[in-house]
């Protein structure tokens, strides 16, 4: 699913965020990316969906060498990737249904297919009954579940989540993880950057630890390994 070969990322200010990373992530894996703030986690995962381009190296995602991808081809490439952010990024003037449907409308899917898929993913995240509500009428946990629904409505092969439980209380964090576990059980690859020690240690998956822009630990069924 993802291959990185000798990847570096140096920003114009001289900061080296990623420093010679080699890694492979298989189809269907669930991978936590952990490390202290400023370790390079966000840059590492942003490069997977071409939000950032590496300074050097090769990145292949789902068979596509995205380091050679023309900017005009990036939107098409991203159709098969779902991205979940810490701050939800919902459109405030659209309802829950409309926020999720938007991802399908931009690719000109038929209204019949849109309705079927949107209601199906809202059912998965337990928000079917709030389809007509607006983001401001929802709790933080509910807003994050809407953002997950939007990310998976295209049935992507890969979901990338950047601190998806970072703004949530423990109860809502576990509910978000229930959804991610369900998505992963259906065969979707998940890469999740997180500071949530309890979740990483309780729900065991592969753990990639990054320090100073390099991978210092890569363990199947690993633990968080940092004080929080």
Automatic annotation (TrEMBL):
Q: State whether it acts alone or in a complex, and with which partners, per the record.
A: Homodimer. Forms a membrane-associated complex with FtsX.
- Which protein are we looking at? Cell division ATP-binding protein FtsE
**Keyword annotations of the record:** ATP-binding, Cell cycle, Cell division, Cell membrane, Membrane, Nucleotide-binding
Its annotated function is as follows: Part of the ABC transporter FtsEX involved in cellular division.
Q: Which PANTHER family match?
A: CELL DIVISION ATP-BINDING PROTEIN FTSE, IMPORT ATP-BINDING PROTEIN
InterPro entries attached here? AAA+_ATPase, ABC_transporter-like_ATP-bd, ABC_transporter-like_CS, ABC_transpr_LolD-like, Cell_div_FtsE, P-loop_NTPase
Q: One of this protein's GO BP terms?
A: cell division
Keyword ATP-binding in the entry? The reply is: yes
Q: Which family does it belong to?
A: Belongs to the ABC transporter superfamily.
Q: Which Gene3D superfamilies match?
A: P-loop containing nucleotide triphosphate hydrolases
The UniProt entry, under SUPFAM superfamilies, shows: P-loop containing nucleoside triphosphate hydrolases
Q: Which GO terms describe its molecular function?
A: ATP binding
Q: Could you tell me the membrane topology recorded for this protein? A: Peripheral membrane protein
Q: Where is the ABC transporter domain?
A: 2-228
Localization per record: Cell membrane
